[in-house]
Amino acid sequence: MFVPSSIKNYFLKKHLNKELLNLNIERTHVKWQDAKTVGIVFDATNIETFGAIKAYTNKLKQQNKKVWLLGYINATNANNVLSFPFFSKSDLDWKGIPQNFEVQRFIDKKPDILLNAYFAPVLPLYYVSVLSNAKRRVGVLMKGYEGAADLLLNLENKEMDAFFEEVHRYV
User: Fold this and answer.
1) Alpha-carbon distance 162 to 97, whole Å?
2) Share of the chain above pLDDT 90, in %
3) How far, in Å, are 30, 122, 152, 156 from residue 84 at the CA level?
4) Which of 149, 88, 85 is nearest to 115 (CA)?
5) In Å, how far from its chain's centre is CA 159?
6) Mean pLDDT of 54-74
7) Which residues pair with 153 in a beta bridge?
8) Tell me: the pLDDT tens digits for 157-167?
9) Could you give the angle at the alpha carbon of 122 between the alpha carbons of 99 and 8, nearest 5°?
10) What phi and psi values does residue 153 have, to the nearest 5 degrees?
């Protein structure tokens, strides 16, 4: 069934608002050096993005941080042999709500810091960011998507490496 994206967006945001009423997540100010766990949600539609994510993940592991990844692929025929947990368009219901075990498992985890490593509005990633049990969420400033993070970075250079540099500067 084809549902126009504006209708999907409306119902997804309505669903999120309802979920937020039932959430009891304690957000706290976690300093980077005190963080033991880091979650990263990212747009994996362009597989080249994963190269930067993977390099950064390796740096975090060298700092003895546990890292959890979740990528979103904006396609219905996603490659099932990727080396990271992901979900795709085929995992969304008619309202655009993710119906995937990996998504729920990621939301249920409680990382010290969640990095919203996406630079354009992607509603399925916004959904994960908003409902995440992370103690602190960091993302890029996007009009209308401010609820996805506790610390919003205003980036001129919308590249992954620049985002990670800003995270280290301000967190």
Assistant:
1) 30
2) 58
3) 26, 19, 26, 28
4) 149
5) 16
6) 95
7) 140
8) 888 999 999 99
9) 60
10) -100, 130
